[in-house]
Amino acid sequence: MSRPRQVVVLDYGSGNLRSVVRAAERAGAEITLTSDFTTALEAEGLIVPGVGAYAACMAGLREIKGERIIGRRLAGGRPVLGICVGMQVLFARGVEHGVETEGCSEWPGTVERLQAPVVPHMGWNTVEAPEGSQLFAGVEDERFYFVHSYAARDWPLVTNDRTRAPLVTWTTHGGDRFVSAVENGPLWATQFHPEKSGDAGAALLRNWVATL
């Protein structure tokens, strides 16, 4: 029997941490909940959760040098999983109520308000997973749980033939299409909450842990 993978859930003041910890433990990971720079840097996997406003999450992340932890891990090919606002902050910027906040800039693009008749987007929805997705292996046709008013509504990253293109998953709400997951080398992320998505979310987290 293989040993549990050592995973840090990054504690930077964003809520919902305990449910993420429990879900990741059920997926087979050994979890440390911490804001410690070295521990987060050296773990086999890092989960960056996030709930609430983009600007507040970025402020909390910068307070513990979280953007440096993410950047250094990715430079060394060490896996990172962003969840909800933890995915949004990976983009270059977020715009909420007319205020623009600089993000971690791991991907270009802007997180902005959904252009749908009903916002927030709250509840279960399907995804359009790309062919070859490891994250959605076995759960491509399942529904996942979303709670958000903002998202990346386009994907401006252009890659050439020498670069393995990221796998981008899309979801549509109220006629508006947005990025709901990305698999980009060691950096994966979901706009929905796998920890609130029942069996499908549990399977998705197991898929991520299996790559560590």
Describe what you observe in this structure.
By secondary structure, this protein is an alpha/beta fold. The protein starts with a strand and ends with a helix. It has helices at residues 17-26, 37-42, 54-63, 66-75, 85-88, 198-209; strands at residues 5-10, 29-34, 45-48, 80-83, 91-96, 99-102, 107-113, 121-126, 143-148, 150-152, 167-173, 176-184, 187-190. The radius of gyration is 16 Å and the shape is globular. It has a single domain (5-209), classed as Class I glutamine amidotransferase (GATase) domain (Rossmann fold, 3-Layer(aba) Sandwich), CATH 3.40.50. Helices cover 25% and strands 34% of the residues. The model has no long low-confidence stretch (mean pLDDT 95). Strand 5 and strand 6 form a beta hairpin. The strands form three sheets. A seven-stranded mixed beta sheet has the order 2-1-3-4-13-12-11, with helices on both faces. A four-stranded mixed beta sheet has the order 6-5-7-10, with helices on one face. Strands 8-9 form a two-stranded antiparallel sheet.
